[in-house]
Amino acid sequence: MMNLILVEDEIAIRTRIAVTIPWEEHGIQVVGQAENGVQALELMKRKLPDIVLLDIQMPEMDGLALARQIASEWSEIKLIVLSGHEHFEYARSAMEAGVQRYLLKPAENEEVLQAVLEAAGKLSKERESRHSLSMLETKWRSHLPRLRDLFLSSWMAGAYKDWEIERHSQEVQLLLPEQGDPYTILVMEMDAPEAGTDRYRADDTDLLNFALHSISFELFDGDNTYVFQDDRGATVMLLAGNEEESDGDLQLRAGFYAARVQSTVRDCLKASLSVGISGTGRCRFGGADLYRQACAALSQRILYGGGVVYPFHENNSLVSVENVDEIHVREAVSSDERLLEISIEKGDEPTAVETVLRLTHSAVNRSGTVEEVKTEVLLLVHLLLGIIKRRGWSVQEIAGTDYNTIQNVQMLQSREQIDHFFKRLVRNITKFGRQSNNLSGNKLIQDVLNMIDNELDNDISLYNVAERLFINHSYLSRLFKYETGQLFSSYVLERRMTKAKQLLNEGAQVQEAARQVGYTNTGFFSKLFLKHWGILPSGLKRS
Question: Against a cut of 0.90, is the pTM above it?
Fold first, then answer.
């Protein structure tokens, strides 16, 4: 039902229009009548009409002035003029004042009714359209966080060109880092629940990762930090700095953010998570490259365990950036297949052999025909070839005499042959991996060893070295132990005692030798020297 007000100083015309036209049959209700513009304005405030039918020539305030006032305060109201002036100038002025129809007196009832119904129809369509747009805008805004997540996830996956990144970021109202400003990417994942614990089951991983995203979002989303989930469910944080912030400062801040999330998750969920941190980028559209770096850093969890923040390092990344897509595939394989790869990574031959035999027996047992057995064997061979390929090793060099069997698994005719073949191949892969690791070493640890040797006279600690290299001290501790077989503090003590012994043998005084290996207290130095070498520095024979 539309509400109509009549504004006409001639009572006869006003009454005819109000009484003789069947308004209610057409969904129109006359809610008020006024004889001049002043009365009409007072009535408007109380009745809030949808349509106003008004005369032009009226006392106190004419129709054109009233029309302008109504258009100014109630722009949605439709105005229809009923006038005795047929001059074009009146009609033009009325249209400029917002009038929809201009009727000449004496207008018949049918003409007046038709003009009002046209105004009502137009107003109804405008309201429907406006309501629809309002609903769409409200719905769009409610979906905006999800749209941002989809954009960020697709950007990290490398789905966009530079111009598409610019356009889509504007569409979801997301401010990208300015060109030249530093930013880094953190990828965070919950560690698998420990075996034997009752708090979480293995299939709770998705729930835990959702909780991780919620905690991270609550802690840090906003203020040039965006938190979202990638297509694997991992929580990703884009941390932006400014042009005055150095790469090292941003990395330290990223490490602090990661530690804060770890602490909160540990307190709230009683669980652990691992974090991979990319290097620092300054190319506005380079997010996908940094994301791959963070994933590559996180993949080191396979070797060093969970609960650690892993920074990306060109020289110590154990899984190349190019293999991140394969990492995603690896994380989706069965637990035994993953255990097999981890055992090979660690050089744990007994576990690797035991696991591959368990896989072969399971594959054979679930096969119902000879062809199914051969298919399962072929799939397991491809799994091992993938492990070899990801490390850039030579299949022919590793396989040796079994290379022909790899090319033609049909040669394996019995369970015993299958078992022996896979045992030999896994042993060869594990042995080759150990030899490669020994030859390649680790550039980061070599840098640390050089730093220790060059600075024995300074206060050198694990925390100090980790901070200078912009890496997490827990990660450095594990990596150092893995590469050298010694604790950091034990190695430093050994190097200091060796250097002190050399200095004393070359004729240095005890106090001078102590100073050159970082000790200002000669008595304390002497006690350490005696404990290490079984003799006091003063009693050492000098040559």
Answer: no
Beta bridge partners of 236: 187, 228
Return all residues near 328 (Cβ < 8 A) that are at least 6 apart. 232, 295
C-beta separation of 314 from 321 below 8 A: no
Q: What pLDDT, in 10s, does the model give residues 184-207?
A: 999 999 887 654 556 777 567 788
**In this structure, are residues 184 and 277 in contact, taking their beta carbons and an 8 Å threshold?**
yes
Which are the contacts of 21, defined by CB distance < 8 A and separation ≥ 6?
A: 109, 112, 113
C-beta neighbour count of 300 within 10 angstroms: 24
How far is Cα 375 from Cα 357, in angstroms, rounded to an integer?
16
Average pLDDT of the residues in 427-440? 74
Written as six digits, the tokens of 63 are: 């129709």
Range 259-288 burial, b when 16+ CB lie within 10 A, else e: eebbeebeeebebbbbbbbbbbbeebbbbb
Backbone angles phi, psi at 218, to 5 degrees: -65, -35
Whether the upstream peptide bond of residue 182 has omega within 30° of 0, thus cis, is no
Chain position carrying tokens 């989930």: 229
> Which class for 8: exposed (0-12), middle (13-18), buried (19 or more C-beta within 10 A)?
buried
The Cα 3–Cα 315 span in angstroms is 78
Q: Which residue has the tokens 């004729």?
A: 507
Q: What interhelical angle do 349-365 and 370-390 show, nearest 10? A: 150
Residue 470 φ/ψ region, left for φ over 0, alpha for ψ in the -120 to 50 degree band, beta for the rest: left
**Amino acid residing at 326:** E
